[in-house]
Design a protein that fits this description.
With 869 residues, the chain is of the alpha/beta class. Helix content is 46%, strand content 18%. It has an eight-stranded mixed sheet. Strand 15, helix 17 (429-434) and strand 16 form a beta-alpha-beta unit. The structure holds phosphoenolpyruvate (PEP) and magnesium ion (MG).
């Protein structure tokens, strides 16, 4: 096996093997840019070392050969006493993990070669001793595992109030002795003076740093696979710490914050790379280099242009100037903010560097989502009191209130409020609508609060478990004895899950104003978003629909680009004042009572549908027949029992109690809901179908689609379908009739079900719940954090589709459904419909559309375009 590549042998496509830094150093070398010579030890060698605990056979010989070649090129040997070659040993994994792994500079110095270095630098003793003390400090900390503060403190004591550049050669020489003493004291051994031994130990330390705790944590957060390993780059040292004619800096080819072209970066005179990052002295803006060293500055600008044209993207760069000579130490395609990503992509199109197709693939739905929410001003001062789950993004500020009634009341008086609950239930809907944001101490990302808030585009932080919500006392307590009472102002950040005391200032989103149609594309960012969205729309195959239950949501969804409604949850129309009617229906014991309740509901339902059909203006509307888990609709058993035990209980209360007892279920989510309820309560579904048909008659061009929830077997579907077909025929209205696929059995018998369904819509919330056996209301706040820590999955399956399990069921249902009915129309309406990765999955398996909350429609449009390119 070949474990070592000279910089002249690699290229930028070899990131798996050479890591990002090594691959790009090779690329720059081959472009003819001034890169100090060197070589890269592959990630293969690292993986072998980490697995076996020893360097692979042949590696040391290969390194020796490459080092010999480097020495003959440089005309001096590593650590040579009278004229030493020094090298740096740097980590570099496939994905950049800034600052997470190790680097050692100035390898090759010892008590003899430090004099050689001084002599060769024209008697610059100060520089030589400064380099030596840096080696012992970095080597001691990263290779020998000595507490870095011991070195820092010794340096601070020596400096006093001076800067490090004020130390003279004699002082630095004494510091070297102090440092050597620290090494002896901490390890029981002398600092290794053999240059080859220094290099060998440094290479192993870099390999080991792959598994340093902070590197592991970073990988988990960034979803970087744990088994990639890092490469090691060994490069001839160039020195930014010679004197004022030398220095080191970082630069971007354009502003990573705004995307604007120009000269962005920092420069530090008389310093080595680690000083910039560590911030030991104030850097100067890169522009000032023009004054200090105009030749190097001009050369640097030229190289930046070469790199941008070559990589066709924003690059970031590390460089060093050694006595007026510029050296490139690193480059990579640079990280950037969401706003910059959009601006840069379209600028590169205008410069003729990339196509519009490429521009669309250079931005992500997550970046677009970030641009859509008002955000807290990150520069503002703020006091964080808790952190929960970032359930629905945005920034909300208001007075804490602890009940829906109070929320509605205060909002009615023009106050901004944040509804704070232990958890929410459908009764809180009015309060959630009234509030600027919702904060709960329990429940995960698919908890009621989270789903509903996302649907409304309302900021929500859920499962903030550090908070103790005392609803009755109208207050909550946070760690550190903070007590927030009703009326106290708090700020919640749904993008990060953070909760702050007091008001944090916010800045609104121009991108949403544009989607709302309120603003012509005016600023550069909105213009860029507009161009990219148009191109994505032209490219995508998937259509995008909305989950919407009210005419207002439907209208907004339409403005955001929805091509129909994929899920209208009719149980959401039965809340508030109408809940009483549903209660009457469920509790009816005679046919007359039941009919009276249905008769009362029908005109209300008809009016609901008319509103939605009008808002959708001829686009298809999928109406799901009622699917209420009964525990969300009936009064609480405990409360009723308590009440019934007192004198105040009425006859009705007692009847209610016995009915609730009769209907009480241990597992309501697996209980009497969906099609099961429709089959058990005669007339319920028929009433809804009649209301749909009559509404459709009144709105010209209306395109209703009737959807049956929670079907597990075709027999359930057939009996509902028969009744619906009859009603439609009587009213003379055309509507597709289809089913949700939410139960694994439905997916597995899709061939049979398709005989009776003109469309399928995958209800991946329930399908995930039932495939994994995870309660969607509970698991995210109970044990998912542990599962995520253990790496059992990298992301909750309720958030992003589990391709291997749930995805497999969907594939089966698509194939067998289409085999039975070639023109079967296929969509998804679970929360996954607005998740970027899941949209790509839906494209891959050949669905016709995705349906998601109105606020996620632009994200789904963009990702559907990206999936098609
Ligand atoms: C689903 O289960 O994915 C779905 C859309 O239905 P609901 O969330 O209303 O159960
Ligand atoms: Mg469902």
């Amino acid at each position: 096996a070949k474990y070592v590549y000279d910089f002249t042998e690699g290229n930028r496509n070899l990131k798996d093997l050479l890591g990002g830094k090594g691959a790009n150093l090779a690329e720059m070398t081959n472009l003819g840019l001034p890169v100090p010579p060197g070589f890269t030890i592959t990630t293969d060698a690292c993986r072998h070392y980490l697995a076996e605990g020893s360097l692979p056979d042949g590696l040391e010989e290969e390194v020796a050969e490459h080092l010999a070649a480097l020495e003959s090129r440089m005309g001096r040997k590593l650590g040579q006493a009278d004229d030493p070659l020094l090298v740096s040993v740097r980590s570099g994994a496939k994905f950049s993990m800034p600052g997470m792994m190790e680097t050692v500079l100035n390898i090759g110095l010892n008590d003899e070669s430090v004099h050689g270095l001084a002599k060769q630098s024209g008697g610059n003793d100060r520089f030589a001793w400064d380099s030596y003390r840096r080696l012992i400090q970095m080597f001691g900390k990263t290779v020998l595992g000595i507490d870095g503060d011991l070195f820092e403190n010794a340096l601070d004591r020596l400096k006093g109030r001076r800067q490090d550049t004020d130390l003279d050669a004699g002082e630095l020489q004494r510091l070297v002795e102090t440092y050597k003493g620290i090494v002896r004291e901490q390890t029981g051994k002398d600092f290794p003076s053999d240059p080859r031994e220094q290099m060998r130990l440094a290479v192993m330390a870099v390999f080991d740093s792959w598994n340093a705790p902070r590197a592991i944590l970073y990988r988990r957060q960034e979803r970087i696979p744990a088994d990639l390993g890092t490469a090691v780059n060994i490069m001839a040292m160039v020195f930014g710490n010679y004197g004022d004619d030398s220095g080191t800096g970082v630069a971007f080819t354009r502003d990573p914050g705004s995307g604007r072209q120009g000269v962005y970066g920092d420069y530090l005179q008389n310093a080595q790379g680690e000083d910039v990052v560590a911030g030991i002295r104030n850097t100067m803006p890169l522009q000032e280099l023009e004054r200090i060293d105009p030749n190097s500055y001009r050369e640097l600008l030229g190289i930046m242009e070469t790199l941008e044209n070559h990589y066709r993207d924003l690059c970031d760069i590390e460089f060093t100037i050694e006595r007026g000579k510029l050296w490139m130490l690193q480059t990579r395609v640079g990280k950037r903010t969401a706003a910059a990503a959009f601006c840069i992509a379209t600028q590169l199109v205008d410069q003729g560097l990339i196509t519009m197709d490429e521009a669309v693939t250079r931005v992500t739905g997550d970046q677009l989502a970030q641009l859509m929410f008002p955000r807290f001003d990150s520069g503002a001062e703020r006091q964080r009191i808790a952190k929960g789950m970032n359930a629905s993004p945005g920034a909300a500020v208001g007075k804490a209130v602890f009940s829906s009634e109070r929320a509605v009341e205060l909002a009615g008086q023009g106050e901004d409020v944040i509804l704070v609950r232990r958890e929410t239930n459908p009764d809180d809907l009015s309060g959630m609508i009234a509030a600027k944001g919702v904060l709960t101490s329990r429940g995960g990302k698919t908890s009621h609060a989270a789903v509903v808030a996302r649907g409304m585009g309302k900021t929500c932080v859920c499962g903030a478990e550090e908070l103790e919500v005392q609803t009755a006392e109208r207050r909550f307590t946070a760690p550190g004895g903070v007590v927030v009472a009703e009326g106290d102002v708090i700020s919640i950040d749904g993008t990060t899950g953070e909760v702050f005391l007091g008001e944090v200032p916010v800045v609104p989103s121009a991108v949403v104003e544009y989607f709302e149609g309120d603003a012509e594309p005016a600023d550069d960012l909105v213009k860029a978003v507009d161009r990219i969205m148009r191109h994505a729309d032209g490219a995508r195959r998937l259509r995008v629909r909305a989950n919407a239950d009210t005419p207002e949501d439907a209208a907004r969804a339409r403005r955001f680009g929805a091509q129909g409604i994929g899920l209208c949850r009719t149980e959401h129309m039965f809340l508030g004042e109408r809940r009483q009617l549903v209660e009457d229906l469920v509790l009816a014991t005679t046919d007359e009572e039941r009919q009276a309740a249905l008769d009362a509901l029908e005109p209300l339902q008809k009016a609901d549908f008319i509103g939605i059909f009008r808002a959708m203006d001829g686009a298809p509307v999928t109406i799901r027949l009622i699917d209420p888990p009964l525990h969300e609709f009936l009064p609480d058993l405990v409360e009723l029992s308590v009440k019934a035990a007192t004198q105040e209980a009425t006859e009705k209360d007692r009847r209610l109690l016995s009915a609730v007892k009769r209907l009480h279920e241990q597992n309501p989510m697996l209980g009497l809901r969906g099609v099961r309820l429709g089959l058990v309560i005669p007339g319920l579904f028929a009433m809804q179908v009649r209301a749909i048909a009559q509404a459709a008659k009144e709105v010209p061009g209306a395109r209703p689609e009737i959807m049956i929830p929670l079907v597990a077997t075709v027999q359930e579907l057939e009996s509902v379908r028969e009744e619906a077909v009859k009603i439609l025929a009587e009213t003379g209205v055309d509507a597709l009739i289809g089913t949700m696929i939410e139960v694994p059995r439905a997916a597995l018998t899709a061939g049979q079900i398709a005989e009776s369904a003109e469309f399928f819509s995958f209800g991946t919330n329930d399908l995930t719940q039932m495939t994994w056996g995870f309660s969607r209301d509970d698991v995210e706040s109970s044990f998912f954090h542990r599962y995520l820590d253990l790496g059992i999955f990298g992301v909750s399956p309720f958030e992003s589709i589990d391709r291997d399990g749930v995805g497999r069921l969907i594939e089966i249902a698509v194939a067998e459904g289409r085999a039975a009915r070639p023109d079967l129309h296929l969509g998804i309406c679970g929360e996954h419909g607005g998740d970027p990765d899941s949209v790509h999955f839906c494209h891959d398996v050949g669905l016709d559309y995705v349906s998601c909350s109105p606020f996620r429609i632009p994200v789904a449009r963009l990702e559907a375009g990206r999936a098609a390119l």
